[in-house]
Structure prediction request, 416 residues.
Amino acid sequence: MRGEDPFDGETGRAGTVGSIGRQPKAVWATAGAAVVAFMGIGLVDPILPSIARGLEATPSQVSLLFTSYFLITAVAMLVTGFVSSRIGGRRTLLAGLALVVVFAALSGASDSVGELVGFRAGWGLGNALFVSTSLAVIVGAAAGGSAAAILLYESALGLGMACGPLLGALLGDASWRYPFFGTAALMAVGFLCIAVFLGEQPKPVRKTSLLDPLKALGHGGLASAAASAFFYNYAFFTVLAFTPFVLDMTPYRSGAVFFAWGVLLAVFSVLVAPRLQRRYGSLVVLGGSLVLLAADVVVLGYGDHVTAVACTVASGAFIGVNNTVFTELALGVSDAPRPVASAGYNFVRWFAAAAAPFLAPKIEEWSDVRMPFVVAGVAAVAGAAVIWVRRTSLAHEAAQPGPVRAVPDAAAVFAD
Prediction:
């Protein structure tokens, strides 16, 4: 398949590491806020049992914190391009951050699990507005080319995913409410930094409609990538949202486990995945990583406690590889503008992120604690099967013959 893979060859990341450190303040402000935004995804992991005890809720009720968050995030993907193409990138970022500050603070003040689930939904809307726009803004303002900007963005994602559980553990050991208040404070700082250091971004030549992301999914390659990512995300968020109940550890220990998980995710996303792509090609790497993730989660479900901890940490490596390759595949496989293609792709895959946290506890109630991980393993294999069956479409219908490096520059982002 190496000969067919449009993403085989140089990834465009070589020589960019040195330029990452020489960035304008606007880039660092946006990247710093992005770290905190991604922290919000794994923030609640170590404190899910504490929240359940504090609000007298069941695991399935508490898991709705993820479901409401990602369900709104998925739907909001159809709105983000519509909004940012009309009010500009800077205002979209500030609007998203403001919503996160408000709803994170309200989450910490919740008196019932229903309130907390509702406030997490509002948080998801703010996060969608911010995350979907931050990449384009970083690329437009970064020095050293788009490859350095993409690497910086991926580093922010990995750092945020690693630090989220750690912050949740440190603050959550005193009270499950403190991580939410801490996130609100950090995002408020991010809001101020962007307001001060980031100038107004150019508005697009053509405004994005609400239906553009759905129309983009009419492309066979993009639809295939989104379908495979849907199954992958189900496995991913079974690990993220259900495993804390299985491990049943203190916030500190659970936070340490998911910190190690996040470190592996960051390292494999930024450093390992590009090298594997150069050597074997993106489709081979993606299919193999999905199969390995499937094996890992099944062993997680059937192993003892030590094995479950080890498999949880190890899953970060496969998830890191998958995140990088899927993102590049989705951005480059169709002829749709990259922001539109990304919105359509994320619209599909985030529904799985919403479904897994809700279904995993239900599956346990209907069967046993192992079965949610078996279902997650089957989902990961299904994702690999989509890659295999649709490999011709994914390999030959790419809009560009080389790897996806990033959106070329700010003008191209908004001109698209």
Observations:
- Residues 80 and 132 are 7 Å apart (CA to CA).
